[in-house]
């Protein structure tokens, strides 16, 4: 069976995490290429994973079955344009993890009927616990879809979207989402400190409660509403706290927050497409 050659352009936080995930998954190191302007980053990757490295993007994609663009969104066009000819000739699968860069913009910069998968991972991908949404354009074959999915699964869970527009909602939910949970944990820790707990105790109990709740929700398969009901005894302490949150319209706040983030994602995508 042919083992795909995967070339990663941009060996920063995300690019390096993907390489680490792929190696952990058993992808052969000689079938991985990383390109980056920083010799230091490349040396680190070479030492740690023994993959192929180069500062020349064109060299990195010479034999690529898949090219992953892991550069900053603002750098995308500048990085893609010099590779346009080779990509148009060879038609490898192009995976973009750049936030807010639409498939139509990439297609326009690459100037061909390129198979493109857009991926929207989130920061926990850096520790192998990401949540990634994928969208494939019509030129992507079934085996390329499977390949893209297996690559992103190396750094967490993966879902597919049929409509690219939903990427803006994903950005608002899981893309920005870690910050919402950090804020909630910060607020809970502060509230517990106000009620007398030492900082470190409040922090540890907050974090472990968040982790435990997420794991219970994932592992039980029960709906979130049902899980909440199960831990909310009538007349008990949880019921009192939940009623304060509901009376203060926590649901409406989250709706407004996600709507604002989605709108901003749409605005940024339009701006980035003009670069
Ligand atoms: N980090 C996240 O949690 C996260 C989440 C979702 C999506 N993303 C997306 O992932 C992409 C990468 O993010 P990141 O956090 O990994 O950024 P990063 O750490 O800055 O990595 C980007 C890398 O690309 C390199 N680069 C710059 N110009 C290049 C060129 N011409 N050719 C090849 N490489 C070049 C950069 O080198 P220099 O540093 O020398 O410029 C850097 O090493 C972004 O588009 C972002 O939207 C990231």
UniProtKB/TrEMBL annotation:
It comes from the Bacteria. Its main location: cytoplasm. This is Pyrroline-5-carboxylate reductase. Its EC number is 1.5.1.2. GO terms for molecular function: pyrroline-5-carboxylate reductase activity. NADP(+) binds at residues 9-14, 70-73. HAMAP family: P5C_reductase. Pfam families: F420_oxidored, P5CR_dimer. Belongs to the pyrroline-5-carboxylate reductase family. The gene is proC. Signal peptide: none annotated. It is an enzyme of class 1 (oxidoreductase). PANTHER family: PYRROLINE-5-CARBOXYLATE REDUCTASE, PYRROLINE-5-CARBOXYLATE REDUCTASE 3. Residues 6-100 form the Pyrroline-5-carboxylate reductase catalytic N-terminal domain. NCBIfam families: proC. NADPH binds at residue 57.
């Amino acid at each position: 069976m042919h083992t795909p050659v995967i070339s990663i352009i941009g060996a920063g936080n995300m690019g390096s995490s993907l390489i680490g995930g792929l190696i952990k998954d058993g992808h052969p190191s000689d079938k991985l290429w990383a390109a980056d302007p920083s010799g230091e980053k490349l040396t680190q990757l070479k030492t740690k994973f023994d993959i192929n490295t180069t500062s020349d993007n064109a060299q990195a994609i010479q034999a690529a079955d898949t090219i992953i663009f892991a550069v900053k969104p603002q750098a995308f066009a500048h990085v893609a344009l010099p590779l346009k000819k080779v990509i148009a000739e060879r038609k490898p699968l192009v995976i973009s993890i750049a936030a807010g860069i639409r498939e139509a913009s990439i297609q326009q910069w690459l100037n061909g009927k390129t198979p493109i998968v857009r991926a929207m991972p989130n920061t926990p991908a850096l520790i192998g616990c990401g949540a990634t949404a994928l969208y494939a354009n019509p030129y992507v074959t079934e085996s390329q879809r499977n390949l893209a999915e297996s690559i992103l699964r190396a750094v967490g869970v993966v879902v597919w979207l049929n409509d690219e527009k939903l990427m803006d909602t994903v950005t608002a939910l899981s893309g920005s989402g870690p910050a919402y949970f950090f804020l909630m944990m910060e607020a809970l820790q502060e509230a517990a400190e106000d009620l007398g707990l030492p900082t470190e105790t409040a922090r540890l109990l907050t974090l472990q409660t968040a982790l435990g709740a997420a794991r219970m929700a994932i592992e039980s398969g029960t709906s979130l509403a049902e899980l909440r009901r199960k831990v909310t005894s009538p007349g008990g302490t949880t019921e009192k706290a939940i009623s304060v949150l509901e009376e203060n319209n926590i649901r409406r706040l989250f709706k407004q927050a996600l709507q604002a983030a989605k709108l901003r994602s749409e605005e940024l995508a339009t701006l980035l497409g003009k670069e």
